[in-house]
Amino acid sequence: MAQFKKAIKGLKPLRLVIGGASGSGKSKTASIFADYLSEQTGKRTAAVDTEHGRLSLYADEFDFDVFQAEPPFHPSTLVKLIHDAEEAGYGQLIIDSSTHFYSGTGGLLEIVSEAAKQKFGGNQYYAWAVGTPLHNTLIDTIIRSPLHVIITSRSKQKYVENEKNGKKTYEKVGEDMIQKDGLEYEFDFCLMMDMDHTARVSKGLNEVDTSVYFKMAGREAIEKIMTALQSDSVVIVDVKPLKKQIKDLIKQHPDSLDEYKKIFSEFGNPNEIEDATVLNTIVDRMNELK
So what's the pLDDT on residue 3? Predict the structure, then answer.
C-alpha cells in the first residue's frame, strides 16, 4: 500500500523559460538571474550554449562554466548534460537556447521527420510516437532536477508598423516560442522579452502573475520571482531517515532511555509521527542530552 506523507512548505528549484526575438536580451537576463541564484545557493552556475559562444560574451560580467553544444542537438544529449551538471555539484543551469534541441540540426523536429520517412510512410502525425517520448523524457529530467533551471527560447518574429515623432517605424517583435506546444505549462514562470528588454510574465505564480511586466528585467525581477516561488513551494519530506536516527540514538545511549521517554511523552511516539519538523525537534533534544 502506498504511504502518503505530510506535505510541508519548502524551497522548490526554479523552472523558468525566457522567450523572445533575437536581440531582446534573453541570454543576458538569464545570466543576471543565474548570478543571483548562485549567491543564494553558494554554488557555481553551469551553462549549455548552443549559440556558437554567444553566452560567453557575458563572461566578463558573470561567473559561470560553459559547455559549447554542437549539432546534432538530440534531446537525449541535453538530458545527459543536465545529469552531468547535477553530478558535478552545480546549483543552477542555463540552457541557451533550448530551441536548437527542438528545431535545430538533429533536434526533435528532424527526428520526427526522419521517423515519418523511415517508419510511417511520410505520416508526420504518427511519427510523433517516436518524438513525444524523447520530449517527455527531457521535460521530466528538467522537472525532477535539483538544479534551478533557466532556459531561453527563440520566438517567431514579425515586424509591426509604429509611428514615432510623426514618422513610420517598423519594430521587430517576438510571438510564439519556437518550441513544442505546451512547453510553458511545465515551467513555474514564463517571461516574454521585447526589444526594449521588458519582460512580460506570460505564466507566473502569486504576486508575479500575468499582469506583471519587468522593465529591463534584472535582479529585482529574479528576487520577486523567487519570493513568489518559495511562498508557493510544497515539498514532500521522507521521514524514514529521521526515525532511523532516533532509533540509532536509543541504541547508542541506552543509559539515557529514561530521558528519551520524557521527550517522547512530550511530542508523541516517534514511530507514529509523520511531521518532519517535530521529528527534527526530537532529534535535536536527544542530541542535547548527549
Answer: 61
Average confidence score pLDDT of the chain: 86
pLDDT value at residue 153? 93
> Binning pLDDT at 50, 70 and 90, where does residue 53 land?
confident
The count of C-alpha atoms lying within 13 angstroms of the C-alpha of 248, restricted to the half-sphere facing its C-beta, is 8
pTM reported for the whole predicted model: 0.72
Which is nearest to 171 in space by CA: 65, 18, 23, 9?
A: 23
* Tens-digit pLDDT profile for residues 116-171: 999 999 999 999 999 999 999 999 999 999 999 999 998 876 555 566 666 665 55
pLDDT tens, residue by residue, 225-236: 998 888 755 555
